[in-house]
Amino acid sequence: METNLQFERPDGRSIDQIREVSFIPNFAPNATGSVLCSFGNTKVICAATIERKVPRWMKSQGNSGGWSTAEYSMLPYSTLDRKTRDISRGKQDGRTVEIQRLIGRSLRAVLDLQKLGERTLWVDCDVLQADGGTRTTSITGAYVASKIAIAHLIENGELEEDPFIDSIAAISVGIYKDTEILDLNYPEDRDASVDFNVVMTGKGDFVEVQGTGEKAVFSEDQLQKLLSLAKKGCRTITGLQTKVLV
Questions:
Q1: What are phi and psi of 120, to 5 degrees?
Q2: Lowest-confidence range among 59-63, 184-188, 226-230?
Q3: CA R_g for the chain
Q4: Domain interval for residue 70
Q5: CATH code at position 185
Q6: Which of 53, 148, 170, 206 has the most other CB atoms within 10 Å of its CB?
Q7: pLDDT tens digits, residue range 11-36?
């Protein structure tokens, strides 16, 4: 893959360099498992809670095993201009619904729901500070928080084995000033002509690829470059997740 590694980005990173990623475990003490996940200036609290019940629709449809789902919100002070809470509007906006469904799908892709038993794994992702990539930060942190929660259940003898069959991580890529770049911050995301969010497993399989030409079309060659950057970013994040979970 030919890349212009000398391209100048607003924050000085190379085109294939992710922002500093950090995890602060057990950030929310009342949750079964939690983490403050940061991608540069984007910071998300991810908290996992495990309930000893499953949704009614699972029982009515005769589905065995457990379930995993997520809720996502951006706190009013997470952006430069105050963001109105969904409850104040009386309904969730479409973006919120889309992102929390994406987080839930991503977790279920690497969960053996039969091993989870008749339990629901809830993950709440609350954006403290937004600087681009809140959904990919949420997915990355949701996995870490969930693994911490599962470890507590196993340690307490409530679960026999880990239901996770693989890890999950996510990263954004895009075309900014005619150049393919990895892990967009807000100014890059705002001005990108093409924007992608990529979710991958630790083994390197794709879970979801969300991509669109915001202001332009993109070629097959550009698509391959974007996916190659995303693979590199997810591999790096997976390594960081592994370190914090040891």
A1: -120, 125
A2: 59-63
A3: 18
A4: 21-245
A5: 3.30.230.70
A6: 170
A7: 999 999 999 999 999 999 999 999 99
